[in-house]
Amino acid sequence: MKEILLTTCAIAIGTGLYAQTTQAGFSGKITDENNKGVQGASVEVRNESTGFTTKTSTNANGDFNFKELPLGGPYIIKVTFIGYGEQIRSGFTLNQGDMIRLNIPIQNASNVLETVELTGVSTLKNKIENLGAATAVTARDIAKLPVNGRNFTSLMDLSPLSKGDNIGGQLGSSTNFTIDGMNAKNPTSAGSTTSRSGAPYSISIEAVREFKVVTNQYDVTYGRAGGGTVSAVTKQGTNKTQGSAWLYSRADWLSSPYDIRGNKRSNDFSTYQYGFTLGVPL
Q: Which of 130, 175, 254, 257 could form a disulfide with 219 if both were Cys (CB 3.0 to 4.6 A apart)?
């Protein structure tokens, strides 16, 4: 029985690594010297920090599409086709919801002496915006902004249409929460399992890479919400060993010695939260 349980857990962990819903990816078109689409060209995408690699081939129109790629970077895109010189584009970083479009021309090998590589191609990036308003809270925002209680949903207020768990003037029960694409609604109260009030548990802010507050009218990829959706993506490791240690505290002596009624308080207002993170390559 123990062996079966361990096997099941291993399968669940392995599945979770590839089940993240990031709404991020690459799309584009491969063209020849006559500006016509090249069918059957091989397009490879590689994340240099993790070694993640995936490939596809262009369709009859020369189009390619990669969806739900892991966030981060730098990403390298390599294009190869028989009889044509290899093309490489590098320097891309994916954040949640980014859909970068690339139009890559290739030339006949007889006219190419070596591989053509372009680095830092920010001018070639074209982010396709989803329908509706959205406020992205990036990894940098989470790292530098103070958060009372260390719950990432406190940063929802960065959205101009958010107040607490309420989005667009709707009740908090009309807000949907997803973690890596999985629904995170509390089935007993219709609230969020990650919210600041009434949640049976909350995910550590140290585990969240970034999230997005998506409000009406939202894209069809979001749903189950009348007000909006908070879509969060957790952190992933790299091929380097890294970690952090943290301590957050609230000192009692910085608080007023009197309560809201003016009476001398006896409760201790000191709060301490501490922990650490550790990531190693597998």
A: 130
